[in-house]
Amino acid sequence: SASHDFSQQQLTNQGQFIWNGAGNLRSGEGGSFVNAPNANFIDSASSGTTIPVRITATGFTGTFTFTNSGLYQKSGAGETRIEIPFTNTPTGTIAVNTGNLHFDSPLPMQGGVINVASGATTQLDLGLSLPAGKLSGGGTVSGNVSVSSAGIISPGEPIGTLTITGNLTLLGTSQLMFDIAHSTPGTGFDVLVVQGTATLAGNFAFNMLTSPQGSLLPTDTLTLISATSVTGTFASLPTGTRFNATSGLGSFVINYTSTAVTLSGFQAIPEPSTWILILGGVGSLCAQALRRRRPGPIPRV
User: Fold this and answer.
1) Using CA atoms, how far apart are residues 217 and 80, in angstroms rounded to an integer?
2) What residues contact residue 277 under an 8 Å CB cut-off, 6+ apart?
3) Taking 70 as the threshold, does the pLDDT of residue 29 lie above it?
4) 156 and 136 Cβ atoms separated by less than 8 Å
5) What is the pLDDT of residues 152-204, one digit of tens each?
6) Sheet containing strand 31-35, strands side by side
7) pLDDT band of 275, cuts 50, 70, 90
8) Quick one: pLDDT at residue 214?
9) Sign of the CA dihedral running 115, 119, 124, 130
10) Least enclosed by CB within 10 Å: which of 86, 218, 225, 244?
11) What is the pTM of this model?
């Protein structure tokens, strides 16, 4: 339960680092922790009901930084509070599996992934700016989220409901990606709930996970995004536009309201194997028709 201290030095994990118990991880005076590519930092430290465990520079002078290029797993109950600059590199993954991973300091996202599992939370006091990398999962992101350039939001993975308690701003060439299997929200298709304002731009795409024949109807309306206010549209997708799934298995019409983005008017597109059967059947019918029309032998006179 005591704090684990080091200062001035760089501590590099190239294998597996397990942090448990209820003590803080502290450093300063230029100290740093580096979670190397392919390394695993397992945060199983369990906090009390009111006092979180902390990665902190409290008690030291100077700076303490954390760089994640491997896998950071939050698996302990309660709250872990990161009170120092935490950089996620293009090879880094932050997996919030349980509890609350609370950043009250900057979280520079150079790339990589933040995945927040169902029932878990990541709290971002200064918000999340995502110029690169991906935000995914079915949990809760507490704070404002801004996505630009090569940034991606992919709720679920494979399917779930991702909740953002603040505002969502999509800019430039950002991407928003959904998976759809059937018409039940949260289990049949991804849902993004924004408890603030959703400002739309960038690119939007959806993928059909399975063959949709029989599981989706033209009368179904799927509410993929809900917010207190929705402004803007996605690139090249004004309201009423029909567009195809990336998998090519179906198409929908996109519509925008003041509080939601919906897909409706589903049309199935047969899979390649179905087209082969259809074309094979057409070819068989044509062959039969030609045989009927072929003249018989000319009688001898």
Assistant:
1) 45
2) none
3) yes
4) yes
5) 999 998 899 999 999 999 999 999 999 999 999 999 999 999 999 999 999 99
6) 10-13, 31-35, 64-68, 86-88
7) very low
8) 65
9) positive
10) 218
11) 0.89
d(C-alpha 289, C-alpha 276), whole Å: 20
Q: Find how far residue 133's CA is from the centre of its chain.
A: 10
Peptide bond before 131: cis, by omega within 30 degrees of 0?
A: no
What's the longest Cα–Cα distance across the chain?
A: 117
pLDDT band per the 50, 70, 90 thresholds, residue 215: confident
Three-state DSSP class for 168?
strand
Grouping H, G, I as helix, E, B as strand and the rest as coil, residue 64 is: strand
Query: What span, in angstroms and rounded, lies between the C-alpha atoms of 122 and 135?
Result: 11
Q: What is the pLDDT of residues 75-102, one digit of tens each?
A: 998 999 999 999 999 999 999 999 999 9
Q: If residue 284 lies in a helix (H) or strand (E), which one and from where to where?
A: helix 272-293
Distances in Å between the alpha carbon of 279 and those of 133, 269, 270?
43, 15, 12
Q: Side chain identity at 79, as an amino acid letter? A: E
Tokens of 261: 């983005």
